[in-house]
Amino acid sequence: MKSILIDGNSLIYRTFYAIREMSNSKGVPTNAIYGFVNILVKIQEEYQPDYLGIAFDLKAPTFRHLAYDDYKGGRHKMPELLEEQFAILKQLLIKMDIPILELAGFEADDIIGTLAMIGAEKGYQTEIITGDRDAFQLVGPNVKVLYTKKGISQLEAVDEAWIQQEYGLTPKDLIELKALMGDKSDNIPGIAGIGEKTGIKLIQKYQTLDNLYAHIDDEKGKQKEKLIAGKEAAYKSRMLGTIKLDVPWDGDFKELSFHNIFNAESIEMLKELEFKNILSRIDQTDTVETIEKAVGFQWIKTDQELAELLAVLAATEEVTIYYHQEETGVYLAMEIENRYYYLNAQVVEKLKFFEKLLSLKNVTTLEITSQDLKNLIHIFHQAGITEVNEAFDTYVATYLLSPGDQRYDLKTAAYKYLSRTILDDEEMFGKGKKRVKASELDEQLLADYFVKNCETVKSLKTVLEKELDETGMMSLFKTIEMPLLEVMASMEELGFKIDRSQLEVLSGDFESKLKGLTREIYELAETDEFNINSPKQLGEVLFEKLKLPVVKKTKTGYSTNIDVLEQLIHFHPIVEKIIDYRTLSKLDSTYGRGLMTFVEPKTNKIYSTFNQTVAATGRLSSSAPNLQNIPVKTEMGREIRRVFVPSDADHILVDADYSQIELRVLAHLSGDENLIDAFKKEQDIHTRTASEIFGVPLEAVSRTQRGQAKAINFGLIYGKQAFSLGKELGISRNEAQNYIDRYFARYPKVQDYMGNVKKQAKEDGYVTSIWGRRRYIPEMNSRNGILVQAGERMALNTPIQGSAADIIKLAMIRVYNRLNVEQLEAELILQVHDELIIDTPKNEQEQVERLIKEEMEGAAQLSVPITVDVNSGASWYELK
DNA sequence: CGTCTACTCT
DNA sequence: CATGAGAGTAGACGT
Prior knowledge:
Elements: E1 2-7, H1 8-18, H2 31-47, E2 51-55, H3 63-67, H4 80-95, E3 100-101, H5 108-122, E4 125-130, E5 143-149, E6 154-158, H6 160-167, H7 171-181, H8 196-206, H9 209-214, H10 221-229, H11 231-241, H12 264-273, H13 276-285, E7 297-299, H14 303-314, E8 318-326, E9 329-336, E10 339-343, H15 345-350, H16 353-358, E11 367-370, H17 373-382, E12 390-393, H18 394-401, H19 410-418, H20 425-429, H21 443-470, H22 474-494, E13 496-498, H23 500-525, H24 535-545, H25 562-568, H26 574-596, E14 599-600, E15 605-606, E16 609-611, E17 621-623, H27 635-638, E18 644-645, E19 651-658, H28 661-670, H29 673-680, H30 685-694, H31 703-718, H32 722-729, H33 733-746, H34 748-764, E20 766-768, E21 774-776, H35 785-821, E22 827-831, E23 835-841, H36 845-857, E24 868-873
Parallel strand pairs: 1-2, 1-4, 2-3, 4-5, 7-10, 8-11, 11-12
Antiparallel strand pairs: 5-6, 8-9, 9-10, 13-15, 13-18, 14-15, 16-17, 19-23, 19-24, 20-21, 22-23
Helix pairs in contact: 1-2, 2-4, 7-8, 7-11, 10-11, 17-22, 18-21, 19-21, 22-35, 23-26, 25-26, 28-34, 28-35, 30-31, 30-33, 32-33, 33-34, 35-36
The structure holds a DNA duplex (10 and 15 nucleotides).
């Protein structure tokens, strides 16, 4: 057995002086605690003792003080910065459930000495962590001291051999030595005029004080006089400097049993202290299972048990579900009225759980809480349950509360909001090649896992609800984000019909053109074949072989992006071919061959995934494949849109897009009368802007002027600066600044608004959309000016982009519901930020065109009108 | 398997 | 000092 005893006072002094000042964001000093905790982490990770105890001195006087008034006299008072941390450390140790050893009348040393002796008798190996050399006297066959050397970065292992080498003495000799030489720090006098060197010599010769004075006549001269004069002081010093080995400790080593120091409470406190380093380390060690509350549950295995569960479900309004879907089926843990139930995939299948659920009369009104409800909706839909009451998705709620985070999975959320470390599916089942099926794992383990995670979802909901209320986002969550789940699930399930043969033709066309271009490029380069797709190889050909001027470099070599190539176009005919090659290569790899791999052969449809928890501004994103970036700008790219067709010959695509939604939002947010006026009169906004800043009548605005105004309008939304605006327009930075100044002169409230947003972002640390969607921007208070500027641009753009996202999300819900209410067959199948596409039976076209315009335009009431343009056609290409 | 570069959209 | 917001994907390349 191994035990570790720590001299808490000594260690915290050491860490306090060894680590530079630090504090958390609330100004609480933390350096000493930080160092202390680091050592505890090291103990847990490396030493893994069976017992651990930390001893502290009490303020009350000890037997030494009673014997000697000046004991430890002359010591400075504990610095305030340390005193504050001392108290916090003790609280932390209590939360870590580490025994704090204190005893009135004794010092930490004495407690440690006594415990070390008790341990030694039991045959334990004991290690004492301290920065006080006094403890060396305790060293023995079973006792070592880990001495904090060089601050705290190293622990020197001090054993008998080490002491012999360092002093030429045994550990016990050190007591006698100290009696002679004293200890300045404890104000132990020793004998005046005897220091370390003489002391060591004397002890080597006589071993003990008694022996020394028995042979005092062997000494002579001044030294003898000093020894005789100091006899009383020496014995007193020995008493003071001898660590007691028999303090009255009535405890048991069992109380010192070491266990994981990271539990919900201690982790919470580490978070408050903002020890991110330490928290990330323990996160990775992943040894922690902190759900201490054992969750009892009922394992549903028989028809009878399932019938009972269904009866419970029929009598409730709320249910929390943790689910896991794989090829073999769906595993479920459920919480109903604080009782837990578990069904494995085999039971779900065999007992026909979902079929029975379908016939439950309250199935459509059950308020369901889960992590990732959109996928659960898919599962329900597959089972024929078409109406689902999505009450609370912990995944979306977690995203909403802090949409700039990287991940919102249950593990991350449980850690952040509950200070719990749980297992997630990835850890439970592995990923990639190592993925295993649930049925391959231990049944009991599996059941336990599902129930625990279900309990976590339930607990998480309580915390997230409170947070949503406190941040004013509950209404956004309830009226937009939750109802939207079903709309997105529906879009995912419906998919977008593809004209496969046309896509094949298109892709073949791209590929044959690419072949020709490849040959031409090799000829023009006068080279052997090289990989044109490799920026590295292309750079070598352009800038080394053909010696074209280097325009720009990347971190790793020559830049060959489109800006660079366009500047080189007149230097060599190869450049134009490369631009064409790039364009075609992108079109084929991503949209030709690329899309082909996503076409489901059975239905000839593409099924994209829509993600609600990715974009920090509140937008949706689309992936696998991304249908929100299908080419449109160039004619060749736009051809791709011909393959996106209605679901059958009796259908037509109806498309509706918001006109200038972001600038309208800006007009609303800023309240600028001039900008509002432009929209109220439904003028062409870029022409109007040009008229304002160039001081010409609307009719006299030239194409160039309109183009420049358009660039300014868009630039504004993104916080663009004069430098790049000038670059874009091919004018000087000064001229560009002049345009921006004139813009703000004509739209003064836009300028005010932007100033206010930045100010607010700096003060609050976040910005909000019209519906209260919040985004934290920590960059605003960075010390790095570049980051602050980037933060300002986010602060400017997010309320605009975010409000536009709110509006179209509301519109999606309205359109979806209206189509249902009017019992139309038309279906919403795609959203592209400001655009909705509806697959519509031809006989519903007029009705749908009218309805979609109404619902989109009526989604929000701003201080400017919102207008929607509607188009219909036989392919996405025709919707312009 | 992760990072980099380049390119597509609103 | 860098210089336009928000996304996703393919291919190359290095580990």
